[in-house]
């Protein structure tokens, strides 16, 4: 439920509405606006009987919101969320396009530091690398796990770069959050609700990947779990969805970028590596995502993709990534000019 206050409503009127909501066993969320204040109501699991609110001074309109998500939607939070990642690196709103790059998996100290120093030199602010790897086959490389997390922490210090890594189980969240800057919830865990709640209790930004077969409503509802626990810093990541098509690893659903930007205030980035599974398609699709308005791009890059322990065929060589970054920066400038021209 959303209570829109009249523009002439006083602080006292607003406080009274909030206290009635609280007395109904629900939670008020103030939604400041340029013209008027609105108050969102959360905590209900179905229709809310609005009789106790009717007739209170200062109320312009009571809107019953029936969406599966509230905190994530623009009804409750009209302006863009800007997520602070560390230092002056931000994602969302009018922040510069966020570039995240690195290997699929942390494989060794040498591999990680080489990649981190290369990215640092290019000015890429965030290094990605999986330590806990969700692999389809139990016979595939499962990641270095705790050792991988320690390597990320070491390389983060040494190279002075922010790091993001995936957490797969709720028990690991607290320990991993102490060592890295950003947590990732992978596609396969998008509906691991205990994991979502656990990352929601941390103060770390979370990259929430879209599930392999998740609808936009399911994806945004998963983000809602994180926000409801008190963590507002969620970045959505489109990484392709499962369709009948097998020519690409997944089907890149770029239409969700403008669609989600209209429905939600959260930043949204695109992962062309998992979306396509093919190195030759990564750069064109990364550029396409910039055109659709993505707030950032996350790309797999490896010092020696031919010998990578996971996702080598979709990982860019350093020189390819360097070229992509140049193209992204040029395109970002072009898009900015285009917007300024109205
Ligand atoms: C990843 O980014 O390392 C990953 C496993 O991707 P996804 O969860 O999108 O498959
Ligand atoms: Mn991968």
What's this, in brief?
With 342 residues, this protein is α/β, with parallel strands linked by helices. It is built from 10 helices and 14 strands.
Number of domains: 2
Q: What is the count of DSSP helices, taking H or I runs of 4+ residues?
A: 10
Can you name the CATH architecture of the largest domain? Answer: Alpha-Beta Barrel
CATH fold-level topology of the largest domain: TIM Barrel
- Indicate the proportion of strand residues: 15-25%
Helix residue percentage? 25-40%
Please provide the count of β strands: 14
Name the shape in a single word.
elongated
Order of strands, main sheet, comes to: 7-8-9-10-11-12-13-14
Q: Which class best fits the helix and strand makeup?
A: alpha/beta
Q: At the fourth CATH level, what is the homologous superfamily of the largest domain? A: Aldolase class I
Model regions low in confidence, pLDDT < 50 over at least 5 residues: none
Characterize the biggest β-sheet. 8 strands, parallel, barrel
């Amino acid at each position: 439920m959303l209570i829109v206050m009249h523009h002439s409503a006083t602080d006292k009127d607003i406080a009274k509405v909030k206290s009635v909501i609280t007395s109904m066993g629900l939670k008020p969320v103030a939604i400041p606006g340029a013209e008027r204040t609105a108050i969102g109501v959360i905590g209900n699991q179905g229709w809310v009987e609005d009789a106790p609110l009717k007739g209170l001074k200062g109320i312009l309109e009571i809107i019953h919101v029936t969406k599966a998500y509230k905190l994530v939607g623009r009804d409750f939070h009209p302006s863009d969320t800007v997520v602070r990642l560390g230092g002056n690196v931000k994602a969302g709103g009018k922040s510069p396009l966020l570039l995240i790059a690195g290997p699929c998996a942390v494989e060794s100290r040498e591999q990680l530091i080489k990649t981190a120093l290369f990215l640092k030199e290019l000015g890429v602010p965030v290094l990605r690398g999986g330590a806990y790897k969700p692999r389809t086959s139990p016979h595939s490389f499962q990641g270095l796990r705790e050792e991988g997390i320690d390597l990320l922490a070491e390389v983060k210090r040494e190279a002075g770069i922010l790091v993001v890594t995936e957490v797969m189980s709720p028990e690991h969240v607290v320990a991993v959050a102490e060592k890295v800057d950003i947590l990732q919830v992978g596609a396969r865990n998008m509906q691991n609700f205990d994991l979502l709640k656990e990352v929601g209790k941390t103060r770390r930004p979370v990259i929430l990947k879209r599930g392999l077969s998740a609808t936009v409503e399911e994806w945004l509802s998963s983000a809602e779990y994180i926000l409801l626990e008190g963590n507002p810093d969620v970045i959505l990541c489109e990484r392709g969805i499962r369709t009948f098509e097998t020519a690409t690893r997944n089907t890149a659903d770029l239409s969700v970028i403008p669609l989600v930007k209209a429905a939600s205030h959260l930043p949204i980035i695109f992962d062309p590596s998992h979306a396509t599974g093919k190195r030759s398609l990564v750069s064109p699709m990364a550029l396409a995502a910039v055109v659709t308005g993505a707030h950032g791009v996350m790309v797999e890059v490896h010092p020696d993709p031919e010998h990578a322990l996971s996702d080598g065929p979709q990982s860019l060589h350093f020189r390819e990534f360097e070229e992509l970054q140049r193209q992204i920066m040029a395109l970002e400038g072009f898009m900015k000019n285009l917007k300024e021209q109205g």
